[in-house]
Amino acid sequence: GAEPSIELGAVYDKEGKAFATFTSAAAASVAPATPGPVGTRRAGWRLVVVRPVVLDGERVGTVYVQSTLNELVSRMLVFGVLTLLVVVACALLGLLLSAGLQGRISKPILDLAHTARLVTSERNFSVRATPRGGDEVGVLVQDFNRMLAEIERQDQQLRQQQESLTEEV
To answer: In degrees rounded to 5, what are phi and psi of residue 18?
Structure first.
């Protein structure tokens, strides 16, 4: 069978007169009287290709083919939908990954910030942040807790020294 997207075809002699023509049942027009300039051009929703026929270096005729762009438009539509689906899937995957990473990174940092506010507002150096892993954030939490322990120890020493000084007076 013939290519369904080809509507018109014609072969012209070297003077530009139609020698043979083909018109599909779906074609809305007939082959032109002359092939027009050699090249490829778009005519509305159709593609027109005009090529010379050369034999032994001499131009003996011209081939004219007119095709609809329906198949191309259909393929572009399918590729567009597939591209959109891939973009949506990637966006959803990115959203899921970012939500997971937020839970793994932001949550421990927010907990650490909450503990720091609690220590600052209540001046309670016995409060500790909960380490959630051995990554950089976990190391930060452990170092923060060691710092609190040292501050708590020094605070207790200062209180003991103050108490001993007030007892002596």
So the answer is: -60, 130
Backbone angles phi, psi at 69, to 5 degrees: -100, 10
The DSSP output letter for 144 is: H
With a threshold of 0.90, does the pTM exceed it? no
Exposed/middle/buried for residue 10 (C-beta within 10 Å: 0-12, 13-18, 19+): buried
pLDDT of the chain along its 169 residues, tens only?
A: 467 788 999 999 999 999 999 988 877 788 899 999 999 999 888 899 999 999 999 999 999 999 998 888 899 999 999 999 999 999 999 999 988 888 777 888 888 899 999 889 988 888 898 887 788 888 888 999 999 999 999 989 998 998 888 887 7
